[in-house]
Amino acid sequence: MLLVTTPIGVVWGIVEASRFHWWLGVLMTALIGVITAFILMTVRRVRHDRATGHSDG
Questions:
Q1: What would the pLDDT profile of 13-22 be if each residue is shown by its tens digit?
Q2: How far is CA 14 from each of CA 3, 37, 50, rounded to the nearest angstrom?
Q3: C-alpha to C-alpha distance for 18 and 52, rounded to whole angstroms
Q4: 24-52 tens-digit pLDDT
Q5: Is 54 helix (H, G, I), strand (E, B) or coil?
Q6: Which residues of 17-48 are buried (b: 16+ CB within 10 A; e: fewer)?
Q7: Is 21 helix (H, G, I), strand (E, B) or coil?
Q8: What band does 53 get if pLDDT is binned at 50, 70 and 90?
Q9: How far is CA 40 from CA 16, 19, 23, 36, in A?
Q10: How distant is the alpha carbon of residue 57 from its chain centre?
């Protein structure tokens, strides 16, 4: 349920921010983009470290 409601809440928040001030919606969208980029970089790094045998697990 959390995997469904969280993206809906994020989109709803961006829509409401855009209704309040358009630039606030743009800033929130940019923030979500930066967070997504860091998550993807972390996942990529973990997968790379596992493939090269640098994990301790």
A1: 999 999 999 9
A2: 18, 18, 36
A3: 44
A4: 999 999 999 999 999 999 999 999 999 99
A5: coil
A6: beeeeeeebeebeeeeeeeeeeeeeeeeeeee
A7: coil
A8: confident
A9: 27, 29, 26, 6
A10: 26
Q: How far is CA 38 from the centre of its chain?
A: 8
> DSSP of the chain, one letter per residue?
-HHHHHHHHHHHHHHHHHHH-HHHHHHHHHHHHHHHHHHHHHHHHHHHHHHHT----
Q: Tell the burial category of 10 from Cβ atoms under 10 Å away from its Cβ (0-12, 13-18, 19+).
A: middle
Q: Which of 32, 28, 6 is nearest to 19 (CA)?
A: 28
Long-range contacts of 5-12 (CB under 8 A, 24+ apart): none
